[in-house]
Structures are given as structure tokens and as C-alpha cells.
Task: structure prediction
Amino acid sequence: MNRRNGIVYLILALVWLAIVALQVADHHSYATDARDSLRSHARDLSNALGVVIRAQRRFGTVPRNQLEGALEGLAEAEEVLGIALFNPRGGVIAKAGEPIDPALGHAAPGTPIWGDDTMTVVELAEFGPEPKTDDPSRQGGSTLLVEGGGPPRSGGPRRGDTNREGGPETGKDGQSRMDEMPPPPPPDDMPDRAQTEGGEPGAQSAGQRSDRDGWHRGPEWSPEARERFRKWMDAAREGKRPPYPPWMTEEEYQTLFEQQGLHKLAFRLSAADVLRAIRTDSHQRFFLALIGLVAVGGLALLYRQMSRSSQLELQLVRAEAMNNHLREMNLAAAGLAHETRNPLNVVRGLAQLLAKAPGDAGKAQDTSTRIVDEVDRVSNRLNEFIAYSKPREPVLATVDMKALLDELGDALRTDCEDRKAEWRNEVLATEIMADEAMLRQVFFNVLMNALQAIPEGGVVRVRAERLERGGELLVRIADSGPGVPEDIRNDVFRPYVSARDKGTGLGLAVVRQIAVAHHWEVSCGVSDDLGGAEFVISGIRMANQS
Result:
């Protein structure tokens, strides 16, 4: 596997990993949102229960039977499986529905505990002041659970409800029974003066007097209880609104709150639908990732087939090029054999003449000169054939094309003077990427053909044009000669195809070889202004261009 294929396969693998990562992230987000929705529902239930408790609360207390009835009604909902209320010590003080682990009373609030198909969450029991009410009996930041159905409509502290010290009566377990005591009478009924309903004194005794609301007053209230009630009412009028009942001290309320205060709520909700939805989403994400894997695998296989097809096409092109080259080499070899045989036959005949006339010095000298010319001709043919047959592997470097053409102009100055030809180098200083030796041979072969084709006083010109597509140059070599016949323009770059009688036909074939090796294109046409042949070389890459 080559480097390019490895890069493509790596990119496809990264694409699939990105798809998997996206699906995992989306599933995690979906599962988090689903669980948060269920936890939000639990908070909504907690808020709803808080509204119920605030509606039933009076002087910071809620009757147990009413609260448990509300819990039972809430537990009848399909999604609620169980409810438990905990005191500040973590003990269960009320519950409904399925049993809940008592250890949750010590758990940190807000942390959900997930079961197979359930979610249990613990929330703090935050029952702030009753909204939009000034009734002190409905105010308070905490709630105390009490026995019974609530405070009676009338009656004050009954006989026997206080101990010998005048404090609250305690049961067998030593706990305060103040949670069973009714609230005291209003402050304006506190005086124990004798007064009748009509405002006339003497209607009742001090031990039998009652106010218009039916509250018992009189000696049943100890001075400590009266003073406590008065302080509670004074604080309420000042806006402090004590959270504890007026018939208790703050210390008594705090002691009882540790055992019967509402501190935490635990809800066990059915999570079957949420977990089922999460599992369904997980399966869908898995199938999407699997589809992505199949798609990426299909693309990899498609690319592999395309790559193999491209390689096969490239091999076919190379094979075809090799076949063409072999055919041209065969043609060149046949031409070389023909071109070599003729001079050798001439050399043989001249040698025979030289042998028959050994005493004629002048004739011998002429014959020897012709022999040397024919041998040089054979050598030139062999050199051209060798130049054509050897492989072209250009070594690219920066070449100043104008300077190179100026050097060639100096080298061809004698030929130009013999033909009285005009040499025009109209190329500006331009640096290109090419093999300098090969580029020199290209220009030399084309320019020699032009000089040999033009008549006396003809013109040979070289121009360069920068194309609009970035970094490429086009070179035009034109002359004022007769031009290349139209019927051989397409074959003029093949071996031993020449428009001149004395042409070898390998010079332009070498030009095409060098152009192909540089990925250039070379063509033959007619000059618009000079009227002769025009050879165009395009695709030359300029230096310092991407």
C-alpha cells in the first residue's frame, strides 16, 4: 500500500471515528436530558407537596393524619412508587407507597439513585413563608409534624396539661406533649378581669370565664406561658414572625423539631419509560454508527477499486507508450541501417577507386576527402540515433531562458551570417524550471531546422508569452521559410520524417522526447506574421511558482 492510499484510508477511518464520537456525544446528551427531566419531575412533586404542606400548616405545624393522607394520594399516581419524609436526624417520620431505605435520610440531597426501573432522589424540605399572606400562623421556614387532626376551635390549656413546675406536660418517654396543645387566646383577651358577654362584670367566676371565641382563660395559664405568648406576639407584630408555635419556647420547638420536623423528602419514581427511551436511543445510535461503518467501508472499497483501475490504466498507458517507443525505435533502427548502408557502400567504392589508382595523388586526395565526409555522415547518424534512444530523466533547476537563447544566438551567429538571416530574441529575462542541457538541445534543434529552411535574408524569431493560468509560459519559435507541409505536420515529430531532402528526421523526434519528459506540449503550425513554420512549446513552469 502506497503512501497516498494510506492517507486516504486514514482519513476514512477518522471520519468513521468522528461519526461514532458524534453518536456517543448525542446519546450522552439525550440520556442526560432524559434523566434531568425525571429529576425535574421529582422536584416538581416536591414543590407540589410543599404547597400542600403550606396549605395545611398552622403555627409551623402540620397534623400527621392530614399529611399522610396527602402522601397516600400522591403515591397513587402511576409514576410515584414511594415517598418518605425524614427528620433532621435522618429518621423516617412519614411514608407512603413502597418502602424506601431509611438510610437515605443520611444521603446528600439532590443525588439520584438509579435502580433497574426506578429512580430515588432525596430533596431538602424547603418550606419557606406562605406566599402572599400576613397570617403569622402560616409563616415559618420549617414545618413540624404533630399528632391529631389539628388545633381545636376553642379551649385553652386544660387542667393537667402542665406539670408541677408550670412547664409543658411530658409523657412516659419524657418527651414534650406540647404538640398536642391548642393555641392560646388572642393577646387582647389575656387580662383575667371578670367580664360578661354583654360587658357587665360579675357574670362568671375567674375559673369559669371564657372569651367570645370560646377560649378558656384564667388561672390555667401560668405566668411563664403568658409571658412567652406575649413575647411571641410582640415578635410577630415587629415582622420577625417566629417559626415556632406561640405555646412553645424556641428551645422546646428545636428539641421537638429534631424528632418530628420535616427535613428531607425521598421520592421513588418509575424510570421504566425513561430508561427504555435511553436504551432505544442507544440502539438507534449503534445502528447509525454501523451504517456509517458500512458507508465508510464501501467508500474504502470503491477507492481501492478506483485506485486499482487507475493503476491498470496507467500501466496500459505506459505499455502503449513503450510499444510506441519500440515501434519508433524499430523505425529508427531501420532508418539508421539504411542511412548507414549507403555511406558504407560509397566508402567501399571510393576505397576501391583509391586502390586502382595509386599513382594519381590528386585523385587519391579527393577520394580520401569524400571517404572522411561519408564516415562523418555515418558518425552523425549514429550519434543522433544514440541521442534519440537513450532515456530522458530531466534534472530540474532554475534556468534563465533569455540568457540561454542569447548564448545559442552567439553560437549560431556564423550560420546566420552565411545566410544573411536576422536573429530576433524577443524573450524577456525569465526564469523557468527545466533541465538546462535538454532545454538547450530543444532550442538548438528547432533553431537549426529554421536556419536551414529559411532563404537568404530570412528571419528567425523567438517569443515568450505568460499564460493567464498561474505560473506557466508559452514559447513560440517562428521563421520566414516555406513552412512545414500540412500533410506531415502531425508526423513531423516522428523519427526520420523530415520536410527537407537532406534532413535526418531525428532532431524533432528528440525535441518531442524532451518535451514529454518535462510534461510540456510541442506542436507545429504556421506563423501569422512571418508566414513560415512556427513551433509552439507550452506548459513550461516558471520558477518560484506553486
About this structure: The chain has a mean pLDDT of 75. The longest strand covers residues 533-541. Residues 36 and 378 are 96 Å apart (CA to CA). The radius of gyration is 57 Å.
